[in-house]
C-alpha cells in the first residue's frame, strides 16, 4: 500500500538531502586546504601528501540515492535508475580503528547490461601531472554451480563527462578494474587490468578471487606537462605496499587520452549479472602515493567531522549530566512516549537506533551523519528541530550531542529504561478459566453457556425468550450447521422422534454430516482469502487451488484439532512425516495474490509477504497488523519491527504449484473441465508463451497450490513452474539467503535494518533460538495454550457464525480499539473449553447449539428491547440472513436438484446447470466470482474477511426474480410440487410451503396462496395445464423470494 | 499526516459536520443491528450534482493529446538529454534509454483560451473553453491493473472502495429508481477492466457501481418468460404480504424492512430502467451529435448519451471505460482510432449537456491510468513506433460542474516526461472531484476494521484553482 505514498516520501527525502547539504556546509573543513598541487612540476613524491577527494561510504544503511558525503566533490552521487547501489555493512576486512563504527561499504549489483551504477563530479577538475586513485573491491561469488570461469566486468573510470546510465566511458577514457583477459598468460581468466579505450588494455597477472578484499591503486599521469597535455599513462597496483611504487602490476602508456578529468564513476557490463555483488569502499583521489595509502578514508572522514560550527566538545559527555536535561527540556514533549510525533522517539535508546520503525536517528560513532544532529542543526527554521519558532539549540549544545554520539552514545538505563512492551489490555492477558456463575433458574441451564448468559440476563434485567418450536429448531439446526434446509422428510423424522435425546441426536447427526464441512469450511475460506486465481489485473487461474478448499472442508469434517489445523497451514511443508495433506494445507499461505505484471520484482515479492502477514495476523491472532506495515501501530502495542519480524518467518519461501505424491491424490487432469472457458483460453495462451520461452512445461502429475520454503521444507517436495505473465521465480539459492529488512514507511525500496523472525513482543518473548524450523516454532507458539489470542479469537468466531455477532463484535480486531467483549468470562470459558478438549471445534459447537440460549424463539419483547435493543445479550434468537452460498444451496434443496457430490475439482459457470453442486464448488476466480456470490456480499478473496456485510440492494430481488437461474429453479420446484401433489391446489400449496419453509401454511396463507394460483382468464396459453403450471411456477418462485426463506428461523 | 486527518475527523465530529456524523452514526447502526438509511447530505454546497468519468483505459499519450511539446519535434530520434533524464523517477520501463519520438499529430489552438489540442480531438477541441486541462498528473505505477486501481480507488492494491462507491455512500442516488453509481465498458480490448474500479472495497456492497451493458441495460430487469406485468404485481403483492406477516412476528426490524422495500425498488427499477435505455425517443440531431449511427462511435456514443440520460434522472456517478489506448506499437494508428472512437461522442456529450443546462451541475472528467513516454518503446521504427507506459507525468481534464474552463493547470518538462509545475497525484484529483460534489475527503468516513477510513488514505489535497 505504502508504495503509493510517494509524495510524502519524496518530501522527506528532500528534507533529508537538504540536511546533508547544510551539515557539509557547516563543517569546519575547508576545501582550500587541499589542492596546493602544482601541475607544472613533475614529481614522484609530493611535497605534501594531500587527498583531493574521498568518500568512505560509511553512510547510513540503505540505497545510495543522491548521497552527499565525503569531501572534494561538487555534487552528490548520481545513481543509475537501473540498479541502485546500496550501502551495507561491509563484508570487507575492517580497516577502521574507531571502536564504535561498524564498517560500511557500497554494494553494487550487476544489471545484465552496461550500467553506471554511480558517478560523481569533482569540485575541481583534475589536470595536474600526476593523480593517484584508490579503492577497495570485494567480489562476492554468485551461486552458479559451474567450474567454468564466469566472465565479469567492473571498472572505475575517470572522464570529462558524466554520460548516462548506460554510457560506456571507453573511448580515450582511463578505466581501472576487472575484465576477462583476451590474451596473455591469464587468457580467459578474470584479472585486474587497466585500459584507455577498449583496444588499449594492459592485463595484470592478478586474478580476481571471490570473497576477498583487494586494494587497488591507480596512477594517472602525463608524460608532457601542461593542462592541455593528455593523461597518457596509467599504472595500477593491486594490494600494494608503500615500497611497491616502482613496480606496478599493469601499465599502459603512450595512448591518446583526456587532458582533464571531472567525473569519476563505476561501470558494470553485460557480463555482470544481476545476482553478482560487488562491494566497493574507501574511494580516494590524492596527489601522491602516500596520500592514498597511509590512511583509510574512514579515519580521515571521522577526523574531519569533529564539532559543530567550529566548536568542538572535547570532554567526555556524561549522559545524565549533559544529554538528558537537554533532551528532556527541548525534545521529550513531542518525541517521547508511545505515540511520539512523526514516530520518532528519543527517550528510548534503541529507538534512536531505529529499532521499531527502521529510521535511524543516530548511530554510535557517526555523530556528524546522524539525522538527529542534522535536524537540530538545520539552517532553515522550517527544517529544524525544535520546530515552530522555538529557539534553536546552541552551537555548544549541538557539539555536545554530536560528541555524545561520537563517543558511543552512552545511555543511563536507570534514568531512561527500555520500556517493556506490555499491555494491560484484556485480550493480551493469559486466559484463566472463570468459575461458572450460579444462577437462579438452573432448569434453563442446559450447557454452561446458559449459566453465563442467564447471569448477564439477570444482571441486566432481561427475560430470555421461550424455546422455539421443534419445527423451527430443526430448520435452524440444518441451516446453521450444514447450510442446507431440511427436506420435508427430514423435518418429519425429527418431529416424529419423541425420545428425550432427539435434539442431541440431530445435532450429532448434522455435525457428522459431510455437508457440515462444506458449510463451516466456507467461513474459513473467507478468512483465508482463498480463491482459484492469481488476482490483480491478469487474474490467471490457479488450476490446483481447489485442493485447499477440500482440505479445509475435510479438516472441519474430521474435527481436526484447531491447533493442528493451524500448524498444518503455517508449516505444512516442514511437518514430518510428510503427507500430501500437510502440503496442501500451505494453501493458506499460498492464497496470497500475485500480480501478473508487476515489473518490480521487489514490490511483487513484498506484496506477497505483506499479504501473508496480514492474513496470518487477522485470521489467527485477530489483530490488525497491517497498520504496522508502515508505522508503529497507533493503538495496539505492535511496532513496525514486530510486523517485519513476523514477516521474517515467511521470507525464505515462495508460492507455487507443488507436486503431490500419494496415490489418493490423483484427480482429473483435463483443466478444461473445471476452468471457466474464457479464463482457460487465457491460461492456455499464457502457457504457450511460457513454453516458447522455456519457462514452463505442463505437468500432469497431481499438484496443489501452496507455499514452499527454500530452506526448511521437506527436501523431496518438488515445485513446478507457475503460469503467470511475470512468473514468480523459484530461486532457492536466493531465497535461502533472503533477509528480512524493516521497510521504512512500508516502502519496498527503502530498506531499514535487518530483522530476525519473532512474534509480536507484546504476546511473549521469542526464544533466542527458534531451532531449524522457525515457522514450525511459530506455529507451535501460535497454537499453544499460552497464546492469549488464538483460542479466544477462534471460539469467538464460532460464536459469531452461530449467532451473527461475536462475543467480541470486531472478530478480527482483538486489539485496544477492538470492541469490548459482551461476555468476557464466557469467552474465556469457551477458550479454555476448546483447549481442554483437544482444540475440538465440534465440542464448542455442542456447547453452543445444545444450549437453551441457542434454542430461544425469535420473539419480540418490548421490555427487553428497552434495555437491550440490539439483542447483544441474546434474550432472543437473533435474525440472520443466509449467506450467498446457503441461499443458492437452499434453492437447490427445495427443487431436489442439488448434486451432493463432495469435493474434487471445481465447476465452471458453463457447466453449472449440468452439475448443480453446492456453491462452494463453483470456480472462484477473483475477478469473476459466481454471480450469486457477488450479489449477496461474498468476499472476492482479496483480504481476510471475518464477517460478511449484509447489504440489501434492488439488484438482489431482480436477480431472485428475473435471472435465468432462478426462473429455472422455480420451474423445477413447480415440477416437483405437482409431481407430489398432483392437481390439488391446496395440496400443492402445502407441499411448496413444506419444501421451501419447512412448515405448512396457516389458513390465511393458504387463502393468499389460493388467490395467486387462481386462473387468470386473460392469460394466453395453449391449454389450461400450461396456465396452471405457469401459475404454480410463479407461486413457487415467490416462495423462494420470501424473507422467511433466506433468514435462519 | 495521519494525525492531522484523525484530528480533523475528531473536530468534525465535535463540530458537527452533518455527513461525517451521520456516516459515523450510520456505521454504528450498521454494525449493530439495524440498517439505518441516513440522510445523505453534502458537507458544503456542491458545484456538481453528478459526475461522468470518461476513463481512457490503456493510457493515451499526453504529448499526443493535450500537452504539445515542440522540443520533442526538434529532438525526434535523439536520446533523452541528461538534464531531463536525471529528473525522471526510477520507474521500470520509463523508456529513458530509448530515442525520443515526436508526436505524429499536429496541434492547433482553439477557442478564446487558445489552448492547443491535438488533431485527434478536433470536435472536443471546440469545447476547449469549457475544459480545465491538468497537465501535471503523476504517480509511480507503470502497470495497467494497479494503475487503473490507483486512478479509480487511490491505491494500486485494489482493496479499497472506488471513488464512485464513496460518492454513492456519501450522497446516495438522487434517483429513486436507479442505482447511484453505474459503470459501462466499451471497446474492451487490451488490459481487462479492473473490478475495484467500480467496486465497493470495504464499504457495503450496496455502494458498488452497477455494471451495465449499454445494449441490455441494468442486469436482470427483463422478466423471464411466463410473466406479465399483472402477474408480477400479483406475485410481488404475495411476497410483500408474506414478508409483512413474517416481520410482525419478529417485531421491528429495519433489515427485514429494507429487504421488503428492496422488492419495491427493484420493481420500480425494472419498470423505469428500460425507458432509460430506450434511445428511440432521442432526436436525429442528438443521435448524430453522439455519433450513434457511425460504426466507430456507436458504442461509446451510446454510453455517452446514456450517461446524459442517467444524469437527467439523478444518477450520481457514471463511469464510462473506453479501452484500447495502450499504444506500445503503431501509436499513430492506435491513437487515431482512439480519437475516432471517442472524439465525437465526448464533444457531443459536452455540447448536449451544455445545451440542456446540465453541464453546470455535471462534472465530466477525462483521463487514463497514466500517460505514455515521450520516447519510442524499444527500437521500432517508422509507423510501428509506439510509446511505453508513463505514470511519471500525464494529462487529465475536467469540465462542467463548477470547473473553470479554458485553463491549464500544471506543466511537464520540455519533453512531457515529468511535472515541473504543480505536480498532482490521483489522490489530489479524487479530493477535487469529491469536493465538487460537496464531499470533504477528511470528513467522509466509514469505520472498517475499527479504523475510520476516508477516501484519500494517503493524502491528497483539493486543487482549488480547478474551480471558477
Brief overview:
Chain A is an alpha+beta fold and 1049 residues long. Chain A is built from 33 helices and 21 strands. Chain B has a domain at 44-214 and 294-438: Alkaline Phosphatase, subunit A.
H-E order of chain B: HHEHHEEHEHHEEHHHHEHEEEEEEEHEE
Mean pLDDT of chain A: 88
The helical percent of chain B reads 25-40%
Number of helices of chain A: 33
Oligomer: heterodimer
Distance between the termini of chain B: 28 Å
Strand content of chain A: 5-15%
Unreliable stretches of chain B (pLDDT < 50, length at least 5) are 1-39
CATH topology of the domain at 30-304 in chain A: Jelly Rolls
Overall SS class of chain B: alpha/beta
Which descriptors would you attach to this protein?
heterodimer; A: about 1050 residues; alpha+beta; 9-stranded antiparallel beta sheet; disordered N terminus; B: about 475 residues; 13 helices
What topology does this entry show?
The complex is a heterodimer of chains A (1049) and B (468).
Chain A: H1 6-26, E1 51-55, E2 62-63, E3 78-79, E4 86-89, E5 104-109, E6 115-126, E7 130-140, E8 154-159, E9 174-180, E10 190-196, E11 201-207, E12 213-221, E13 233-238, E14 250-253, E15 261-268, E16 277-286, H2 289-293, H3 297-304, H4 319-330, H5 349-352, H6 371-376, H7 395-406, H8 448-460, H9 470-482, H10 488-496, H11 502-512, H12 514-527, H13 546-558, H14 562-571, H15 580-585, H16 587-590, H17 601-621, H18 640-647, E17 653-659, H19 677-692, E18 703-709, E19 719-720, H20 732-737, E20 740-743, E21 751-755, H21 774-782, H22 790-803, H23 824-836, H24 841-849, H25 862-867, H26 884-895, H27 931-935, H28 955-962, H29 964-981, H30 985-997, H31 1003-1013, H32 1024-1039, H33 1043-1046
Antiparallel strand pairs in A: 1-16, 2-4, 3-6, 4-5, 5-16, 6-15, 7-12, 7-16, 8-9, 8-15, 9-10, 10-11, 12-13, 13-14, 17-18, 17-19, 20-21
Chain B: H1 2-14, H2 18-31, E1 50-56, H3 70-74, H4 82-85, E2 107-110, E3 115-118, H5 122-125, E4 131-137, H6 144-153, H7 163-171, E5 181-186, E6 210-212, H8 229-250, H9 254-277, H10 284-289, H11 295-312, E7 317-322, H12 331-355, E8 362-367, E9 371-372, E10 389-390, E11 394-399, E12 407-409, E13 411-412, E14 419-421, H13 426-436, E15 446-448, E16 451-453
Parallel strand pairs in B: 1-7, 1-8, 4-12, 5-6, 5-7
Antiparallel strand pairs in B: 2-3, 4-11, 8-11, 9-10, 13-14, 15-16
Helix pairs in contact in B: 8-9, 11-12
Amino acid at each position: 500500500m505504502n508504495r503509493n505514498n510517494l509524495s510524502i516520501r519524496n518530501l522527506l527525502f528532500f528534507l533529508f538531502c537538504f540536511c546533508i547539504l547544510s551539515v557539509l556546509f557547516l563543517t569546519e573543513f575547508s576545501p582550500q586546504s587541499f589542492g596546493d598541487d602544482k601541475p607544472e612540476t613533475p614529481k614522484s613524491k609530493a611535497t605534501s601528501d594531500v587527498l583531493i577527494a574521498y568518500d568512505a561510504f560509511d553512510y547510513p544503511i540503505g540505497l545510495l540515492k543522491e548521497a552527499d558525503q565525503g569531501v572534494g566533490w561538487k555534487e552528490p552521487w548520481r545513481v543509475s535508475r537501473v540498479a541502485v547501489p546500496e550501502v551495507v555493512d561491509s563484508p570487507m576486512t575492517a580497516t577502521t580503528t574507531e571502536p564504535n563504527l561498524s564498517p560500511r561499504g557500497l554494494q553494487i549489483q550487476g544489471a545484465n547490461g552496461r550500467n553506471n551504477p554511480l558517478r560523481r563530479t569533482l569540485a575541481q577538475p583534475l589536470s595536474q601531472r600526476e593523480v593517484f586513485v584508490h579503492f577497495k573491491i570485494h567480489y562476492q561469488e554468485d551461486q552458479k554451480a559451474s567450474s567454468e570461469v564466469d566472465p565479469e566486468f567492473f571498472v572505475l573510470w575517470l572522464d570529462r563527462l558524466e554520460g548516462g546510465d548506460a554510457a560506456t566511458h571507453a573511448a580515450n577514457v582511463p578505466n581501472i578494474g576487472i575484465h576477462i583477459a583476451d590474451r596473455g598468460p591469464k587468457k580467459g581468466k578474470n584479472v585486474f587490468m587497466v585500459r584507455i579505450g577498449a583496444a588499449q588494455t594492459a592485463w595484470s597477472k592478478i586474478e580476481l578471487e571471490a570473497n576477498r578484499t583487494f586494494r587497488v591503486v591507480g596512477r594517472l599521469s602525463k608524460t608532457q606537462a601542461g593542462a592541455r597535455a593528455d593523461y597518457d599513462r596509467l599504472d595500477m597496483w593491486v594490494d600494494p605496499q608503500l615500497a611497491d611504487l616502482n613496480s606496478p602490476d599493469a601499465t599502459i602508456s603512450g595512448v591518446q587520452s583526456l587532458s582533464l578529468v571531472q567525473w569519476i564513476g563505476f561501470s558494470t557490463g553485460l557480463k555482470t549479472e544481476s545476482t553478482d555483488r560487488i562491494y566497493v569502499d574507501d574511494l580516494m583521489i590524492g596527489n601522491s602515493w602516500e596520500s592514498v595509502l597511509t590512511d583509510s578514508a574512514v579515519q580521515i572522514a571521522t577526523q574531519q567531522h569533529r564539532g559543530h560550527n567550529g566548536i568542538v566538545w572535547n570532554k567526555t559527555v556524561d549522559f545524565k549530566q549533559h544529554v538528558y536535561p537537554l533532551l528532556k527540556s527541548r525534545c521529550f514533549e513531542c518525541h517521547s512516549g508511545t505515540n511520539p510525533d512523526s514516530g520518532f522517539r528519543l527517550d528510548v535508546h534503541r529507538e534512536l537506533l531505529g529499532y521499531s520503525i527502521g529510521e535511524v536517528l543516530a548511530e554510535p560513532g557517526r555523530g556528524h551523519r546522524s539525522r538527529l544532529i542534522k535536524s537540530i542543526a538545520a539552517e532553515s527554521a522550517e527544517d529544524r528541530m525544535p520546530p515552530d519558532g522555538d529557539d534553536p539549540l546552541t552551537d555548544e549544545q549541538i557539539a555536545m550531542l554530536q560528541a555524545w554520539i561520537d563517543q558511543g552514545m552512552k545511555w543511563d538505563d536507570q534514568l531512561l529504561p527500555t520500556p517493556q512492551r506490555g499491555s494491560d489490555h484484556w485480550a493480551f492477558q493469559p486466559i484463566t478459566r472463570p468459575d461458572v456463575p450460579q444462577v437462579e433458574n438452573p432448569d434453563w441451564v442446559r450447557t454452561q453457556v446458559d449459566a453465563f448468559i442467564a447471569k448477564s440476563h439477570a444482571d441486566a434485567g432481561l427475560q430470555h425468550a421461550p424455546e422455539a418450536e421443534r419445527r423451527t429448531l430443526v430448520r435452524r439446526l440444518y441451516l446453521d450447521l450444514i447450510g442446507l434446509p431440511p427436506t420435508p422428510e427430514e423435518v418429519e423424522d425429527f418431529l416424529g422422534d419423541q425420545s428425550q435425546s432427539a435434539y442431541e441426536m440431530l445435532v450429532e447427526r448434522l455435525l457428522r454430516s459431510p455437508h457440515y464441512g462444506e458449510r463451516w469450511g466456507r467461513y474459513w475460506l473467507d478468512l483465508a482469502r482463498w480463491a482459484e486465481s492469481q488476482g490483480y489485473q491478469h487474474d490467471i487461474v490457479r488450476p490446483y487451488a481447489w485442493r485447499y478448499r477440500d482440505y479445509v472442508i475435510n479438516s472441519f469434517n474430521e474435527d481436526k484439532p484447531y491447533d493442528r489445523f493451524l500448524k498444518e497451514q503455517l508449516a505444512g511443508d516442514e511437518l514430518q512425516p510428510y503427507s500430501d495433506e500437510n502440503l496442501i494445507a500451505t494453501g493458506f499461505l499460498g492464497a496470497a495474490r500475485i500480480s501478473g505484471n508487476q515489473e518490480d520484482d521487489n514490490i511483487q515479492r513484498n506484496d506477497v509477504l505483506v499479504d501473508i502477514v496480514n492474513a496470518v495476523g487477522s485470521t489467527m491472532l485477530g489483530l490488525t497488523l497491517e497498520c504496522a506495515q508502515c508505522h508503529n501501530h497507533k493503538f495496539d502495542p505492535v511496532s513496525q519491527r514486530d510486523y517485519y519480524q513476523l514477516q521474517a518467518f515467511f521470507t525464505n519461501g515462495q508460492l507455487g504449484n507443488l507436486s503431490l505424491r500419494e496415490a489418493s491424490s490423483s484427480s482429473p487432469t483435463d483443466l478444461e473441465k473445471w476452468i471457466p472457458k474464457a479464463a482457460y483460453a487465457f491460461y492456455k495462451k499464457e502457457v504457450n508463451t511460457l513454453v516458447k520461452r522455456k519457462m514452463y512445461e505442463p505437468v500432469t502429475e497431481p499438484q496443489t497450490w501452496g507455499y514452499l520454503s527454500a530452506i526448511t521444507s521437506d527436501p523431496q517436495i518438488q515445485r513446478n513452474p507457475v503460469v503467470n505473465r511475470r512468473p514468480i521465480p523459484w530461486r532457492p539459492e536466493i531465497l535461502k539467503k533472503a533477509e528480512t529488512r524493516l521497510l521504512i514507511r512500508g516502502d519496498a525500496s527503502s530498506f531499514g535494518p535487518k530483522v530476525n523472525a519473532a512474534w509480536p513482543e507484546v504476546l511473549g518473548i521469542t526464544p533466542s533460538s527458534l531451532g531449524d524450523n522457525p515457522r514450525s516454532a511459530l506455529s507451535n507458539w501460535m497454537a499453544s495454550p499460552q497464546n492469549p489470542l488464538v483460542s479466544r479469537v477462534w471460539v469467538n468466531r464460532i460464536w459469531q457464525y452461530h449467532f451473527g455477532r461475536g462475543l467480541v463484535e470486531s472478530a478480527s480486531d482483538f486489539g485496544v480499539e477492538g470492541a469490548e467483549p459482551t461476555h468476557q468470562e464466557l469467552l474465556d470459558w469457551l477458550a479454555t473449553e476448546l483447549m481442554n478438549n483437544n482444540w475440538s471445534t465440534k465440542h464448542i459447537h455442542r456447547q453452543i447449539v445444545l444450549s437453551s440460549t441457542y434454542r430461544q424463539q425469535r420473539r419480540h419483547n418490548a421490555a427487553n428491547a428497552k434495555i437491550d435493543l440490539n439483542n447483544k445479550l441474546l434474550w432472543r434468537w437473533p435474525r440472520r440472513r443466509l449467506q450467498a452460498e446457503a441461499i443458492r444451496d437452499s434453492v437447490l434443496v427445495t427443487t431436489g436438484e442439488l448434486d451432493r457430490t463432495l469435493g474434487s475439482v471445481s465447476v465452471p459457470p458453463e457447466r453449472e446447470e449440468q452439475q448443480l453442486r453446492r456453491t462452494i464448488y463453483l470456480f472462484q476466480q477473483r475477478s469473476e466470482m459466481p454471480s450469486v456470490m457477488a450479489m449477496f456480499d461474498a468476499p472476492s478473496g482479496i483480504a481476510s474477511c471475518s464477517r460478511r456485510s449484509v447489504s440489501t440492494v434492488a439488484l438482489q430481488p431482480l436477480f431472485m426474480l428475473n435471472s435465468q437461474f432462478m426462473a429455472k429453479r422455480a420451474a423445477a420446484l413447480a415440477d416437483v410440487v405437482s409431481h407430489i401433489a398432483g392437481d390439488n391446489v391446496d395440496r400443492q400449496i402445502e407441499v411448496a410451503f413444506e419444501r421451501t419453509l419447512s412448515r405448512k401454511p396457516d389458513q390465511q396463507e393458504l387463502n393468499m396462496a389460493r388467490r395467486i394460483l387462481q386462473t387468470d382468464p386473460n392469460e394466453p396459453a395453449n391449454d389450461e395445464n400450461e396456465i396452471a403450471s405457469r401459475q404454480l411456477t410463479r407461486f413457487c418462485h415467490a416462495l423462494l423470494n420470501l424473507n422467511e426463506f433466506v433468514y435462519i428461523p | 499526516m495521519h494525525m492531522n486527518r484523525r484530528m480533523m475527523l475528531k473536530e468534525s465530529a465535535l463540530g458537527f459536520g452533518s455527513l461525517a456524523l451521520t456516516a459515523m452514526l450510520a456505521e454504528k447502526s450498521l454494525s449493530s443491528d439495524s440498517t439505518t438509511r441516513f440522510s445523505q447530505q453534502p458537507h458544503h454546497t456542491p458545484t456538481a450534482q453528478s459526475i461522468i468519468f470518461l476513463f481512457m483505459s490503456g493510457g493515451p499519450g499526453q504529448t499526443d493529446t493535450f500537452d504539445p511539446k515542440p522540443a520533442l519535434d526538434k529532438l525526434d530520434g535523439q536520446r533523452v538529454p541528461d538534464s531531463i533524464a536525471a529528473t525522471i523517477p526510477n520507474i521500470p520501463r520509463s523508456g529513458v534509454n530509448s530515442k525520443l519520438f515526436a508526436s505524429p499529430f499536429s496541434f492547433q489552438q482553439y477557442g478564446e483560451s487558445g489552448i492547443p489540442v491535438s488533431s485527434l480531438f478536433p470536435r472536443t477541441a471546440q469545447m476547449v473553453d469549457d475544459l480545465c486541462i491538468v497537465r501535471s498528473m503523476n504517480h509511480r505505477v507503470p502497470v495497467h491493473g494497479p494503475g487503473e486501481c490507483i486512478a479509480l480507488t487511490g491505491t494500486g492494491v485494489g482493496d479499497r472502495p472506488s471513488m464512485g462507491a464513496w460518492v454513492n455512500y456519501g450522497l446516495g442516488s438522487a434517483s429513486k429508481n436507479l442505482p447511484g453509481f453505474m459503470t459501462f465498458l466499451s471497446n474492451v480490448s487490451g488490459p481487462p477492466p479492473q473490478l475495484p474500479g467500480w467496486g465497493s472495497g470495504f464499504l457495503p456492497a450496496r455502494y458498488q457501481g452497477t455494471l451495465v451493458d449499454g445494449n441490455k441495460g441494468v442486469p436482470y430487469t427483463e422478466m423471464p418468460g411466463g410473466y406479465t406485468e399483472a402477474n408480477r404485481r400479483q406475485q410481488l403483492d404475495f411476497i410483500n404480504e408474506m414478508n409483512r406477516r413474517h416481520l410482525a412476528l419478529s417485531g421491528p426490524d429495519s433489515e427485514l424492512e429494507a429487504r421488503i422495500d428492496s422488492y419495491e425498488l427493484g420493481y420500480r427499477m425494472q419498470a423505469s430502467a428500460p425507458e432509460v435505455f430506450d434511445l428511440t425517443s432521442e432526436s436525429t440531431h442528438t443521435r448524430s451529435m453522439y455519433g450513434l449511427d457511425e460504426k466507430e462511435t456507436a458504442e461509446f456514443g451510446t454510453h455517452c448519451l446514456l450517461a446524459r440520460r442517467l444524469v437527467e434522472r439523478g444518477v450520481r456517478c457514471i463511469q464510462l471505460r473506453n479501452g484500447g489506448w495502450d499504444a506500445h506499437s503503431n501509436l499513430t494508428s492506435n491513437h487515431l482510432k482512439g480519437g475516432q472512437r471517442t472524439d465525437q461522442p465526448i464533444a457531443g456529450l459536452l455540447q448536449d449537456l451544455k445545451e440542456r443546462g446540465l453541464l453546470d451541475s455535471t462534472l465530466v472528467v477525462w483521463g487514463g491510468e497514466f500517460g505514455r513516454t515521450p520516447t519510442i518503446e524499444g527500437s521500432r521504427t517508422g509507423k510501428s513506433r509506439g510509446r511505453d507506459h508513463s505514470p511519471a507525468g500525464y494529462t487529465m481534464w475536467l469540465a462542467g460542474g463548477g470547473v473553470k474552463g479554458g485553463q491549464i493547470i500544471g506543466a511537464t518538462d520540455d519533453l512531457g516526461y515529468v511535472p515541473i509545475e504543480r505536480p498532482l497525484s490521483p489522490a489530489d484529483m479524487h479530493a477535487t472531484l469529491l469536493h465538487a460534489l460537496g464531499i470533504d475527503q477528511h470528513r467522509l468516513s466509514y469505520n472498517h476494521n475499527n479504523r475510520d477510513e476516508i477516501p484519500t488514505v494517503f493524502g491528497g489535497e483539493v486543487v482549488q484553482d480547478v474551480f471558477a
